[in-house]
Amino acid sequence: MIDELVVKSFESPDETMALENAKGECVQLGERKFWLATAEPGWKFSRDNGPDMGTEWCPSPHRLYMLSGQMTVEMEDGTRKTLEKGDVALLPPGHDAWVEGDEQVVWFEEELDG
């Protein structure tokens, strides 16, 4: 139940994450975390972030809304989709992702439990 008004801004995030060619700002509202993520041209999860996590495939689920750019997502089974501005997507664990073209990708995401 929501019993109070809470307003936060990504301009003053509660948490930040800096990755190779990508970054994220997080605000927490009650029990929920919301991320504003940015990936630079050339970013690819399996190359830039996966090795630090000891995996080729992202182990986390994602529910996201694309704000700008194009990002291709490939599942372990070979299923591949390119996401673009305005798309809403649910990604299960076991995916790779990379920026398409020379425009940075920005998306909004609600953190999900694995």
Automatic annotation (TrEMBL):
Q: Which domain of life is it from?
A: Archaea
Q: Which residues cross the membrane?
A: none
UniProt cross-references to Gene3D superfamilies, sorted A to Z: Jelly Rolls
Task: Provide the organism lineage as a comma list.
Answer: Archaea, Methanobacteriati, Methanobacteriota, Stenosarchaea group, Halobacteria
Q: InterPro entries, alphabetically? A: RmlC-like_jellyroll, RmlC_Cupin_sf, UGlyAH_Cupin_dom
Please name the Pfam families in this protein's record.
Answer: Cupin_3
This chain belongs to which protein, by name?
DUF861 domain-containing protein
Q: Which residues form the (S)-ureidoglycine aminohydrolase cupin domain?
A: 64-100
